[in-house]
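Reminder to self: tokens first, then the designed residues, so the page reads top to bottom the way the pipeline ran.
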């Protein structure tokens, strides 16, 4: 496949006949290499941790460790800021202090006795091809929140199911096991064991770190195990007839240590736990289920259901939650009921874009599951009077459910319900970013998830935001009152930002993205009531605030940290992404204003959106009219390539067939195409300072990795520009990668070997972006911002880049290995001509540099 449909330009001004001949040869070879079919590397499975969430908590099945390795009390990473007695946020050494959510499970797994011996299944190989998410219907792939692991022990096929039950409005999970005899004769004397090691002691070290296990107590209530500690109570209920119930402290030996009993082989039963509750460090519990004989072709089940409650004295309440859920059902019935719930979701709610092939349908259906699981569904929680250990006072800004001041310990009502997290665990981005959330909410509406989308948008209207208006960083802007967070939110719906040595992240792109998502929701679902009910707030604290952020000197949105979160203190820029989202959002707000009868704002928003768009065309394009990352780097003459600007065309500010789109796509293809994959890196910051300083020296492998969000947005732009071949390559690449990796859409791929990198599964930047890309292909209807593309024939302002040569550079690679810069003026002018130099054209880098050297040598000889 060709990366560009354009011909390469000539070899420049080499003057000797030999030089011209060599130059022509090298240029032809360069174009030939760059135009050859680019085969993506083979996809590999490197993602092995499968999450499940019900919006109240989250659990994770680790296929590498063959165990359940994570169970958090909330689906989000942090609850709220730490505050002092006056209600002010607490900072320590310049860092805001936060209340972290807790992972209350160290591990849990099954064991099996068969063939005269026993073993823990965490020691047995998993069939990775057979494992994954349970199918929502026969013949389908995934589409549910039930993670499964398949193992084989002799003739027994053992399938573990792990899921957060959607019908339980609390942090909870089920681990169930099906033992099927695939042999020709009966398997006799089969038993199943389950081991559960919760940590409910002191600490809040971060939701991906282990809690202490001090001060825990264990007791048996009926057949339920009850484990209590500082971090609350966990109740486990066996699903099936229990033969033995065992519990032991970490220092136990011999028959008193249930782990050792099964690990040692043989056929020794667990030792029944009969002790009275007593505090200790490191309790673990286990069940033994004797299944007996399993006939050939038959199967038997066992399992345990768990629930966590943050009140250590809430045993009766937690047990009642389990009773309400489990009733008289066994493990098999609970698994089948959970599959049925997801099947109903797929058939009654999800609308698959037309034209999808089988693999795409599997991934987009599972993407709907990910979007649903990533939405916070809790609005109340129990708070202790102590924060992370006894005697450490906890304070909160929230009130009791009845509206009275909260008295701790007790229940409080927070503002977290409806938030969509940026990732599920094991990804570390289990926070509600407005940017990710806007793409997610739009995708929900597109996929028919109307109520989820409405709740997602309503969340932003109800969250505790506008908190940074008077910060000194924003004082030069006379920051107006605002509604949408300048970065992200804590889990309880409190605006948050993060700090490093360059200060906070303060981002304005969320304002425009919210307005775009709001109109997308209304246009897609036909529901006008959300805007009607909240127009006064939306207009004054989002639309008006955004207009107030236009810089009168540039016509662009004032410098901020934007999509790649560059922080402040000299790192803020007049980013194209922030301005493009503002332009699109204001154009959409104008449509909403017109519909509700707010004619003055409709006129003002439309004029503002159009003026920002024109300022982008005049101020943010280089000599060839390629759109730059930001104004400051453009003026410096190099290092201004950024695939976030794909959204200037995906959001239809500019004609995808116009000169701005054409030159921008050419430049991005040349510099940021991934060597291993079909997509693009996010920007050139990792390599644009090769051999010297530049304006973004913080660049890293996070920048050079192949980013899924920009690749999917880029695929949309490619299709609009007439390059359906590249668009389909990107979609197939993401689809194949995700199917191989258990339907998780990654944040990034390694640009050199194509493997999953950094965070997965991503939600708005992954599942949501994929759904929007498929829907865009199916629809094909143009929706230009403010009703029409910019008339580019009217552009006459000289480019800000100055020289007329885009990103002229010095001949050093501009965006990493295998990606050339434009070189000096005597080199072949490939930056505007269309040769790709990534992937199989890697040798083109060296050929181009050799040609530049030959030209220089010719000049020296003439001198």
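Designed residues (863 positions):
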């Amino acid at each position: 496949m060709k990366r560009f449909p354009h011909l390469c330009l000539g070899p420049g001004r080499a003057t000797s006949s030999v030089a011209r001949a060599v130059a022509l040869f090298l240029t032809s070879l360069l174009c030939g290499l760059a135009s050859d079919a680019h085969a993506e590397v083979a996809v590999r499975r490197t993602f092995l941790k499968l999450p499940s969430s019900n919006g109240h908590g989250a659990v994770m099945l680790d296929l590498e460790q063959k165990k359940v390795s994570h169970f958090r009390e909330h689906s989000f990473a942090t609850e709220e800021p730490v505050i002092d007695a006056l209600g002010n946020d607490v900072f320590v050494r310049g860092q805001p202090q936060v209340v972290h959510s807790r992972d209350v499970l160290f591990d849990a797994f099954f064991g099996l006795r068969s063939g005269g011996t026993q073993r823990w299944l965490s020691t047995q190989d998993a069939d990775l091809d057979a494992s994954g998410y349970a199918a929502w219907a026969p013949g389908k792939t995934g589409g549910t929140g039930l993670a499964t692991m398949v193992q084989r022990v002799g003739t027994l096929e053992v399938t573990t199911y792990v899921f957060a039950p959607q019908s339980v409005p609390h942090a909870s999970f089920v681990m169930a096991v099906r033992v099927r005899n695939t042999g020709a004769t009966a398997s006799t004397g089969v038993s199943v064991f389950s081991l559960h090691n919760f940590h409910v002691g002191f600490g809040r070290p971060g939701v991906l770190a282990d809690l202490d296990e001090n001060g825990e107590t264990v007791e048996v209530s009926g057949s339920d195990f009850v484990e209590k500690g500082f971090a609350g109570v966990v109740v486990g209920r066996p699903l099936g007839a229990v033969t033995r119930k065992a519990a032991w402290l970490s220092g136990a030996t011999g028959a008193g240590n249930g782990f050792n009993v099964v690990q040692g082989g043989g056929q020794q039963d667990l030792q029944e736990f009969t002790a009275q509750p007593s505090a200790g460090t490191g309790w673990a519990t286990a069940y033994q289920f004797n299944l007996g004989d399993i006939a050939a072709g038959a199967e038997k089940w066992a399992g345990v259901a768990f629930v966590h409650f943050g009140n250590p004295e809430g045993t009766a309440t937690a047990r009642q939650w389990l009773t309400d859920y489990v009733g008289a059902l066994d493990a098999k019935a609970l698994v089948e009921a959970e599959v049925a719930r997801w099947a109903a979701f797929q058939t009654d709610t999800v609308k698959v874009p037309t034209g999808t092939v089988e693999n795409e349908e599997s991934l987009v259906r599972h993407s709907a599951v990910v979007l649903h699981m990533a939405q916070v569904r809790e609005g109340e929680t129990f708070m202790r009077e102590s924060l992370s250990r006894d005697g450490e006072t906890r304070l909160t800004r929230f009130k009791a459910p009845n509206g009275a001041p909260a008295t701790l310990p007790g229940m409080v009502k927070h503002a977290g319900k409806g938030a969509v997290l940026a990732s599920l665990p094991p990804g570390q981005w289990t926070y509600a970013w407005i940017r990710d959330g806007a793409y997610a909410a739009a995708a929900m509406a597109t996929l028919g998830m109307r109520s989820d989308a409405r709740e997602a948008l309503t969340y932003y209207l109800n969250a505790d935001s506008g908190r940074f208006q008077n910060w000194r960083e924003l004082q030069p802007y006379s920051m107006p009152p605002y509604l949408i967070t300048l970065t992200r939110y804590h889990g309880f719906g409190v605006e948050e930002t993060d700090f490093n040595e360059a200060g906070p992240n303060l981002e304005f792109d969320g304002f425009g993205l919210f307005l775009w998502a709001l109109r997308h929701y209304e246009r897609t679902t036909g529901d006008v009531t959300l805007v009607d009910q909240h127009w006064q707030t939306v207009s004054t604290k989002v639309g008006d605030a955004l207009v107030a952020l236009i810089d009168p000197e540039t016509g662009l949105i004032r410098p901020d940290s934007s999509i790649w979160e560059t922080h402040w203190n000299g790192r803020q820029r007049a980013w194209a992404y922030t301005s493009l989202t503002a332009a699109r959002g204001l154009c959409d707000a104008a449509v909403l204003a017109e519909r509700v009868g707010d004619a003055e704002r409709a006129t003002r928003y439309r004029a503002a959106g159009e003026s920002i768009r024109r300022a982008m065309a005049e101020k943010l394009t280089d000599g060839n009219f390629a759109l730059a990352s930001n104004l400051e780097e453009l003026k410096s003459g190099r290092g201004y390539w950024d695939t976030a600007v794909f959204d200037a065309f995906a959001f239809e500010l500019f004609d995808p067939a116009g000169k701005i789109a054409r030159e921008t796509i050419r430049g991005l293809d040349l510099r940021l195409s991934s060597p291993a994959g079909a997509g693009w890196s996010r920007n050139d910051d990792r390599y644009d300072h090769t051999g010297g300083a530049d304006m973004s020296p913080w660049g890293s492998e996070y920048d050079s990795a192949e980013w899924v969000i920009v690749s999917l947005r880029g695929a949309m732009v490619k299709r609009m520009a007439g390059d359906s071949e590249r668009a389909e390559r990107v979609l197939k690449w993401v689809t194949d990668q995700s199917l191989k990796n258990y339907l998780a859409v990654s944040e990034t791929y390694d640009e050199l070997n194509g493997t999953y990198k950094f965070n997965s599964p991503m939600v708005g930047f992954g599942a949501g972006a994929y759904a929007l890309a498929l829907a865009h292909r199916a629809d094909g209807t143009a929706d230009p911002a403010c009703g029409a593309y910019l008339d580019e024939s009217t552009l006459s302002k000289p480019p800000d880049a100055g020289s007329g040569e885009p990103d002229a550079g010095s001949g050093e690679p501009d965006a990493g290995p295998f990606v050339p810069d434009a070189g000096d003026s005597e080199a072949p002018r490939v930056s505007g001509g269309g040769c790709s130099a990534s992937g199989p054209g890697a040798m083109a880098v060296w050929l181009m540099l050799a040609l530049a050297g030959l030209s220089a040598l010719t000049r020296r000889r003439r001198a």
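The mean pLDDT is 90.
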